[in-house]
Task: structure prediction
Amino acid sequence: MRPISYPLLIGGLVLLIAVLAFTSLAAGRVWVPLPYWFSQADPRGAIVLGLRLPRAMLGVLVGGALGLSGAALQGYTRNPLADPGLLGVSAMAALGAVVTLYFGIAAASAWLLPVGAVVGAMGGIGVLLLLSGRTGGVIAFVLAGVILNTIAGACVSLALSLAPNPWASGEIVNWLLGSLQDRSIKEVQWAAPFVSVGAVLIFLTTRSLDALTLGEDGARGLGVNLGRTQLFLALGVGLAVGGCTAVTGEIGFVGLIVPHLVRPFVGARPSRVLLPSALAGAVLVLAADILVRMTPGAQEVKLGVAMTAIGAPFFLALLISMRRRLA
Amino acid sequence: MSAQATGELRVDEVRVLLGGRSVLDGVSTIFRRGEVTAVIGPNGAGKSTLMSCLTGLRRPDSGKASLDGRVIVDLPHRERARRIGVLPQTPEIAWAVDVETLIGLGRIPYQGAFGGGLGADDHAAVEHAMASTGVTEFRYRVATTLSGGERSRALLARALAGEPDWLLADEPLAGLDPGHQFDACDLFRRIAAEGRGVVVTLHDLTLAARLADRIVVLAEGRVAADAAPSDALTADLLARVYGVEATVLSAPDGLSVTLLGRVRS
Result:
């Protein structure tokens, strides 16, 4: 029936993550022989432990959070086009972060930047879930995403054009493009708690997401509390996506692509898609991050840009294959 | 199935207002286990609203719907879902899951907080539900590719997989050909014979007469009749409630209702 079994798929993905994480430690412009990786004396040890290790950890964290959020959003909305980036949740998170930067709130405590991003993300997803819960239409939902993206984008642009100095705006733009480059273990420590709590909340909606296969009435008949599901998802996706975006900027399309890659292996049941999507998201982001590091040129290509370059054509292909359903 | 032999589902003086209009206006009736009760009535009579009160999806504006003396909307969600199996009027199958997985969704009220796989009890219940609805042969097919008849049987199996004491189905025969309508009726009768309660809303009067032990006729949010089919379905009542002229014949194998046309006066 299925090409491979569920435990085998999970095992394979975990193994793939391990291999890619190792590759991520080795890959870069400087070649560090294995014996020097953990050397305190050799400066090359600092490259591996100080720069590449946080980068690999963030790759797993961010990829996992985005893949999981995408799978959960698609399950909740019964809409295979749902994605935190596409629907403006990431953009709202970025707006939240930029607001804390702009008003200098972030200077008071480093924790306030991720908090701002999480608040932004929750606001975005709250609007989306409220809309999808009542009207349920794919079109209303996607349009709401377009509007959120537009509003968030406009407000960020406003903040940029009013920025006190070009250096500050350059920083913000650079961060918005989305990257894992030059992040430290501190950034991992900021993102990890938000992503972990968010992931637990998302996994608590597993039963409800399955039940929603039968539509809202069907799910309620199965004893699902839809208000609670909506709350957990808004908090969970808000925390996970907000926590990531605060640290890495906007990285889109991971949540859109990954569930589609996973479904041929595990079937369409939403609960079965969640964990493999998180793992496959980590694989995708780790692999893409290794690739962008290898690009020739003085500056590496930003991960967010690369993901858009992969994701946009994928989205187009998906739309074409769904044309009949939408018409 | 729980051990309560005197299981009783009832509504007392239920009123529901929708947009200022009273959709149910003081409805009282009792449903019993071991019986098939058909709720009939013209469009807009309040059938679906009554069903949503019975399934705990809507709180009446006044009056109460109760199961063994306990108010249904106040039951813990999961307990309610275990005891009352619901077949919604417009069932949706959102994802291309296989039939067996679809039916397994009926076990959700028994699962833990993080979901998880099905245990031995769950599998047994799913097998039993598939066997009694005759869907075992296409258990591996994708649910979204089924024909109308197969689909409604699969959804019925999904409702039965939860082993509820009560099966509440809103228009379960709509869209089925006559053969499958009879099959579904047989199944409802068998479910009731197992000691469960079955409540269905229907439009087809002859089918209602043959299927049901008792018929509740709703008209404009009130109970117009509540009796055995031969007592409830009279030509006089059909003229009053539906505005149609009909002949009602009592045949040895049940009641036969022939509709002649609109009442002209």
